[in-house]
UniProtKB/TrEMBL annotation:
Domain AP-5 complex subunit zeta-1 N-terminal TPR: 1-280
Domain AP-5 complex subunit zeta-1 ARM repeats: 321-438
Name of encoding gene: AP5Z1
Native source organism of the sequence: Zalophus californianus (California sealion)
PANTHER family to which the protein is assigned, alphabetical: AP-5 COMPLEX SUBUNIT ZETA-1
Domain AP-5 complex subunit zeta-1 C-terminal TPR as annotated: residue spans: 450-798
Name used for this protein in its record: AP-5 complex subunit zeta-1
Domain of life assignment: Eukaryota
InterPro entries for the chain: AP5Z1 (IPR028222), AP5Z1_ARM (IPR055450), ARM-like (IPR011989), ARM-type_fold (IPR016024), TPR_AP5Z1_C (IPR056856), TPR_AP5Z1_N (IPR056857)
GO CC, alphabetical: AP-5 adaptor complex
């Protein structure tokens, strides 16, 4: 991020100790106490700023130094450069309790803005925000609209409006609204005069400034806006630019509020078709109240910006500015129509034409988002169907511009912010989740947290299974998008794909018709309601598993899966839960082979499998056949130990008559035999490079599950007792210790001994291993006569006392 030289300076600044810092502060004090601080003072303050800003914790400065920094900042005779540095240093120390800035006498708007930046950084201590706002307005009132340097006050006012919106009086609100009208609508249309240093060649015959121009070079024939261009700008033109930058926030602040605002019923009447004629005949602008006049001029300004956006810019910087101003202009129009419905019918035709023009211009796709938001907000009132606009937005934009990080972020934020407005169009959003996942797959680090919030609104019972498959295939989607960009006929000058992988071998193979159908399914724009097995595609895209973007996406999937299941478990019924569990079992061995991806996903899926079983315990009986097939195979058991442990635990916990009356002894016996055979194979097989050792946690869960099943079918108790005895003997042998280590082997031996002890009293074993539902009630744990810990302690004493008399 930084150059080697910058990194060295930052390192030196962080390494300065407190003693050295105090000595340096003393030097700064001496330099600032001079009558005429020179370049040495500037250099010292620059170094001090680097020191205090290089660390995330607050550096302690001498009180004398801090006081002198404040005095220098508030001094009217101090050079601007020193004031800037003093303000920057004091801001870095925020919040501070020992500030004593004397700013009541300040009349310079630039100096006041610096002092205000320090005070506002402290928070709302001692009502600094209110006091600064009042003083800023006093300075504003003392100036004429064309007065010098008023533009330094506008950021202060904007910040105060944000931090403390109720600190301004009505007359102050009216004053600023009037000034904004003047700056927005009546700025000079002549370019500013270049500042000359006065020399021999500066004569009265110097060339007079010409009129401002449009972005395409034509002479401007209408009023000045932020999109007007020129060599130099006048003060009121700079104020015009700043006024537009704070216009939307100020409209929201000064808009109709409280009892004077129309209520919902009145507003709906205002938005009715009966006012479509009245809206065309507006009151004379100069007779309107300040806020209404500001809204009128803001509307004219935004219409002018929309017209200017149609011009072809000569410079790239102007083209980028056009796009940004167009977005802001539409947002301002949306705000105006919310506050005053009479603007609605004057805006509709403009935005309809703008939308038709932008649909064919991918470079300006960002402006489609506020237009869609506008029609979501006002479409019903204006009798305009927003479905076609949303359909185009969700179908084309993510598919074509997923590689634009700014657009991707704004698109996802638009979806989240507009959720209350979708109404009957929410189905369009839900159907488009495959397209939205393209934004996520390509930009996963910055968008993961946004999608965690958005996912609950995207998923429903009809799309849950398809979305789960899509989330598991998200890294594969990233690789497919990379491949799509490489195969695109319109190659970019700057490659958008991973350049570390120059020419993957799958590039030509992907043109095969066999893979084209799978790629088209993976890159679909809308939910199809079907699921396809993508294992051949995983194999085709294997060379791209090491791409940085694919790896980043794979790291985000576990978090997204947790958000998905958290949302699904709120509405999933038994049938949907069974389908989701089947997907978990099916996809355990069918994941894109990104390094460490399978292990991370298995950990999440195993925990979610247990959560689904707790939600609907009967699924163990419903899916008995599929679960038996899962535990009946020992292949790759070492790579899916987490899933196996979860399935075994769920069988031991929920395969019981107490959870499902359909549970039979035959089912318990079949599961017992399958798990017994599995445990025998994993403990008897010798580990090798091709067959790693089985995790000891899996062995412990399998032993416990076998014991639970035997306690429910007492004919199995002799078999499991014999097996546990052998396991205890095996755990004490050097062979198992050499495989699992002494600590793990000891844990296996301890677990086998505990289970054997329980089985010596079958009724007690069933009580402990298959407790009734009453155990979850608080009374069961508070009552000393029925508490489970008491029962266990009693059983332990009996077993220890009579161990020699019991069979075993």
């Amino acid at each position: 991020m930084f150059t080697a030289g910058a990194e060295s300076l930052l390192h030196q600044a962080r390494e300065i100790q407190d003693e050295e810092l105090q000595k340096f502060c003393s030097r700064v004090v001496k330099l600032l106490q001079k009558d005429d601080p020179g370049p040495d003072a500037v250099d010292a303050l620059q170094r001090l700023f680097l020191i205090v800003s290089a660390t995330k914790y607050k550096r302690k400065l001498e009180k004398t130094c801090v006081d002198l920094l404040q005095t220098t900042l508030c001094s009217p005779k101090c050079p601007e450069q020193l004031q800037f540095l003093c303000a920057a240093i004091l801001r870095e120390r925020s919040p501070a309790d020992n500030l004593s800035l004397s700013w009541d006498h300040i009349q310079s708007s630039q100096q006041l803005s610096l002092v205000a930046s320090v005070l506002l950084a402290q928070g709302d201590k001692k009502e600094e925000v209110r006091s600064v706002g009042q003083h800023a307005f006093r300075v504003l009132e003392s100036r004429q609209p064309e007065g010098p340097s008023l533009r330094h006050l506008l950021p202060v006012v904007s910040k105060i409006t944000h931090l403390a919106p109720h600190t301004l009086h009505e007359d102050q609100t009216n004053l600023l609204s009037k000034r904004l009208v003047d700056w927005l609508r009546y700025a000079s249309v002549q370019q500013g005069v270049a500042h000359t240093s006065g020399g021999f060649f500066s004569t009265p015959r110097a060339r007079q400034p010409g009129p401002v121009t449009e972005v395409d070079g034509a002479v401007a024939t209408d009023f000045f806006t932020v999109l007007s261009t020129g060599q130099h700008f006048t003060e009121d033109q700079w104020l015009n630019v700043q006024a537009f930058s704070m216009l939307r926030a100020w409209l929201v602040h000064s808009g109709p509020q409280g009892p004077s605002a129309p209520d919902a019923d009145d507003k709906s009447e205002l938005e009715g078709s009966t006012l479509s004629v009245l809206s065309a005949t507006s009151t004379a602008s100069h007779l309107l109240p300040p806020q209404e006049r500001l809204r009128e001029k803001a509307f004219e300004y935004c219409q002018r910006l929309v017209e200017q956006s149609t011009r072809r810019a000569l410079r790239k910087g102007d083209a980028d500015l056009q796009k940004a101003c167009l977005v802001e202009a539409v947002l301002v129009l949306d705000t105006l129509c919310r506050q005053d419905p009479t603007f609605l019918y004057r805006t509709l035709s403009c935005l309809k034409a703008l939308h038709a023009r932008l649909c064919g211009d991918p470079a300006r796709a960002r402006a489609l988002l506020p237009i869609a938001q506008f029609f979501l907000s006002h479409g019903e009132a204006a009798a305009v169907d927003s479905e076609a606009i949303l359909q185009h937005l969700f179908t084309r934009v993510p598919c074509e511009l997923f590689h634009s990080p700014m657009l991707a972020f704004e698109f996802v934020r638009f979806c989240g912010d507009s959720l209350p407005l979708f109404g009957r169009n929410l189905d369009i959003l839900k159907r488009s989740f495959p397209n939205l996942f393209k934004l996520l797959a390509w930009n996963s680090p910055p968008l993961t947290s946004e999608f965690v919030v958005l996912l609950p609104s995207l998923v429903d019972a009809g799309s849950a299974v398809e979305m789960l498959h899509a989330l598991l295939d998200l890294p594969c989607l990233t690789a497919a998008l990379d491949l799509q960009l490489r195969l695109s006929p319109a190659a970019s000058e700057r490659p958008l794909w991973d350049t570390s992988l120059r020419n993957p071998s799958c590039l030509e193979a992907s043109r095969d018709p066999e893979f084209q159908a799978l790629l088209q399914h993976l890159l679909r724009a809308e939910a199809s309601g079907t699921v396809q097995r993508l294992a051949p595609l995983h194999e085709l895209l294997r060379p791209m598993t090491g791409c940085a973007r694919v790896v980043q996406c794979a790291e985000a999937v576990p978090t997204l899966l947790q958000a998905f299941f958290s949302a699904v478990t709120r509405f999933a019924d038994g049938a949907l839960t069974n389908q989701l569990v089947l997907v978990l079992l099916e996809r355990r061995d069918s994941l894109y082979q990104v390094p460490q991806y399978e292990d991370r996903v298995h950990r999440v899926l195993s925990s979610q499998l247990l959560a689904l079983c707790a939600l609907h315990p009967s699924l163990v009986v419903d899916l008995a056949k599929e679960l038996l097939e899962f535990v009946g195979s020992v292949s790759s058991v070492h790579s899916r130990g987490a899933m196996l442990a979860a399935v075994a635990w769920a069988v031991g916990e929920y395969l019981s008559v107490s959870w499902d009356r359909r549970c039979t002894v035959e089912q318990i016996t079949r599961f017992f035999e399958a798990l017994e055979a599995l445990l025998f194979e994993v403990t008897q097989s010798r580990p090798s490079a091709a067959l790693p050792k089985c995790p000891p946690q899996v062995i412990a869960v399998l032993m416990t599950t076998l014991t639970k099943l035997a306690s429910r079918s007492q004919d199995l108790i002799p078999r499991v007792s014999l097996f546990l005895s052998k396991m205890r003997t095996l755990a004490q042998s050097p062979a198992l210790s050499s495989v699992h280590g002494e600590e793990d082997a000891g844990a296996i031996c301890t677990r086998a001994t505990e289970l054997l002890t329980l089985l010596k009293m079958p009724s007690v074993a069933q009580f402990v291993l298959t407790p009734s539902a009453e155990v979850s009630e608080p009374r069961y744990h508070r009552d000393a006569n029925t508490a489970l810990p008491l029962a266990l302690r009693t059983v332990s004493r009996l077993v220890e006392k009579e161990a020699g008399l019991l069979p075993g």
